[in-house]
Amino acid sequence: MRIATRSGRTVLVSADTASIVDVARASGGRFGPEPRGVYDAWDEFVDWATGSSIDFAADGVPVVLEELGPPSTDPRQVFAIGLNYRDHADEAGLEHPDSPPAFTKWVGSFAGPVGRLELPAATVDWEAELVVVIGRRAERVTAADAWSYVAGLTVGQDYSERALQLSGPAPQFSLGKSFPGFAPQGPWLVTPDEVADPDNLTIECRINGETMQKSSTSRLIFPVPTLVERLSSVVPLMPGDVIFTGTPAGVGGARTPAVFLQAGDVVETTIEGIGSLRQTCVAP
């Protein structure tokens, strides 16, 4: 199953991703329209959605990627994980962590899958990421059970303004990664059962058609089940919560010389079995 948001309303996406149907209208008001209400009733929603005979041809409207928003528009909590690929830790010259380094990206940075990215400074970097959305309250769950708490997976970018991120005696990771548009996600949420191997997905970032990052989520130091286990051992994860799982090697700031985004650049981020994002960089 694939779900997305359009004008703040949850929609179901057809198997061929060509059309969408409004969940609140299709369910007679039982679910939605706001995404949080859908995640709060996730198990019941899945039962309804998988058991319904929705006629996308008759009731659907065409998918317009520019009209879609992030799959979870107002999560209670947003987690972002740093240094979660060995090759990225190596390119940063840092030791591999023995526990997941966590920070946040504020919801004001959320954006849909396609649009413009305003560059607030000359040192904006890219970070392709697999993003997880939680479907059930998770508190002290084990890695073995963790996938059952995941609503689905989507594509994300953790855009980062490096000068602010690394400024001061205490780095400003969350602020440097939370300018408007710095957390695009989408184009839709894909439930784990729709992905052949959710622990082994090709992830790629291209800028102006040139591949800058290409890896697999199988190379995560802390894979999705471990992240859910570790995070939920500290704080309960709530339905609709969002987890950015980290980025592989190939970021601009680690290159010699460093490379950062410029107005006119087009950034495309793709994850196998899920879909793609596209942002066009513009001057402020």
CATH second-level architecture of the largest domain = Alpha-Beta Complex
The helix tally amounts to 8
Question: How much of the sequence is in beta strands?
Answer: 25-35%
Quick check: average pLDDT?
96
Q: Spans with pLDDT under 50 lasting ≥5 residues?
A: none
What do we call the CATH homologous superfamily of the largest domain? Fumarylacetoacetase-like, C-terminal domain
| CATH topology name of the largest domain | Fumarylacetoacetate hydrolase, domain 2
Please give the radius of gyration in angstroms.
18 Å
Topology:
Blueprint: E1 2-6, E2 9-13, E3 19-22, H1 23-26, H2 35-40, H3 42-51, H4 56-59, E4 61-62, E5 68-69, E6 78-81, H5 86-91, E7 102-103, E8 110-111, E9 114-118, E10 124-125, E11 128-134, E12 150-157, E13 160-161, H6 162-165, H7 173-176, E14 183-190, E15 202-207, E16 210-216, H8 224-232, E17 242-244, E18 266-271, E19 275-282
Parallel strand pairs: 6-17, 8-14, 9-19
Antiparallel strand pairs: 1-2, 1-5, 1-14, 2-3, 3-4, 6-7, 10-13, 11-12, 11-17, 12-14, 15-16, 15-18, 18-19
Report on the architecture of this protein.
- With 284 residues, this protein is an alpha+beta fold.
- It folds into 2 domains: 2-63, no CATH class; 75-282, Fumarylacetoacetate hydrolase, domain 2, CATH 3.90.850.
- The protein is built from 8 helices and 19 strands.
- Strands 1, 2, 3, 4, 5, 6, 7, 8, 11, 12, 14 and 17 form a 12-stranded mixed sheet that branches.
- Strand 15 and strand 16 form a beta hairpin.
- The chain is globular and about 55 Å long.
- The relative contact order is 0.20.
- The mean pLDDT is 96.
